[in-house]
Design brief:
Layout lengths: L1 H7 L1 H15 L13 H4 L1 H11 L5 E8 L2 E12 L5 E2 L6 E2 L4 H15 L32 H5 L17 H5 L5 H9 L15 H15 L3 H10 L8 E2 L14 E2 L2 E2 L7 H5 L9 E3 L1 H12 L3 E2 L2 E2 L3 H7 L34 E5 L3 E6 L4 E7 L11 H13 L12
Antiparallel strand pairs: 1-2, 1-13, 2-3, 4-8, 5-8, 6-7, 9-10, 11-12, 12-13
Amino acid sequence: MRSSVRKFGVPILIALLLSACRLESSGTARPEEAGMSGKHLRLLDGILENAISRKEFPGAVILIGRKGKILFRKAYGQCQWVPQRKPMDEAMIFDLASITKPVATATAFMILVEEGKVSLDEKVKDYVPEFVPYVDPAGTPGEDARIWHLLTHTSGLPPYTEPRGHAGVEQQFGKRLPTEQLVAYIAQLPKTDPPGTALHYSCLGYITLAHILKKVSGQDIAQFTQERIFRPLKMKHTFYCPPEKMRSLCVPTEVIEGKPFIGVVHDPLARLQGGISGNAGLFSTADDLAVFAEMMLHNGSYKGTRILSPLTVARMTSVWPKAAFAGRGLGWDLDSSQSTSGGDLFGPHAYGHTGYTGTSIWIDPDTQAYFIFLTNRVHPDDKGAVIALRSRVANVVAAAIQDPSNAKTPR
């Protein structure tokens, strides 16, 4: 690698790496070949350019697929504003933030379920003995949380715990914290509600799930997902802790003390764990996420490689019946308060997820369509806005579908 840098120089080397990423990705088909309107999809150009001009985020990559074809792939704006401007490229690698939850953690955990190594109705405390139950105002302990409560964000765990400050975990334990120690701390936090009674979207639950996965499988979430998910699917640009040779392809996030995070996870609790966590830490490209979406749309299989069984995919992407009020599947969001990223037009079986850094993915099995919308709205100062725009992008994608005979009528 060093000899390559000396020979070509950093800018040329980056261009060569991006070119290689594009060569590995499939080309785009005309939208009309898969029943979508190319003219309608071109509305995205104005929507994205206007948002960038308002400085809602530096840049974005959008990829749209349907019926096994990639129909739209485009980069907009800049990948970096600070310390100098750099153009966005459609092959760049994004910090996915909470998209880690369904794509890595929930998928990995359900592989263990399929193999009979764990059951979703088992108690969390069977794997994390320190996990205390909810205690009511009279001081009476409630029922124990089950693993499915962690997956559906209904365990009673609070959303997050501050890493810094007087009472933060960094103050108590230092700037590097083994996952086991962090999970023991999380387990003893007071629970907000009895399990299965309230939705509190919780990063802490997914940190706990990754810890349980390691106890059961013997591998951390990074090792397990590479071996069982990303390498079999040939998702070559999807990983935790991007290797040094890939750092130059990573989209910068927040600027701290004058330097942006590049290839370093933005989420503070994930950073405390060395970048490997169940709630955040995964990096990927739009094209790799398209492969994952195709696998999900094909009931757990992609080009002859099976990752999940059809019944597992169906269960993960349906509202969990024991906590229907939450609108969540197992890892995936269907109809919760956060599901606005799917817009107003896709039907009740569509599902997806978002990430704090400005990332999102939405998949609709009824129309065999999906879209991936990646931004770095946290660059440079964590003040960018993308929530409303996600919904508008989703509506344009849905409205571009021109063969409603293939779309199921909502229940």
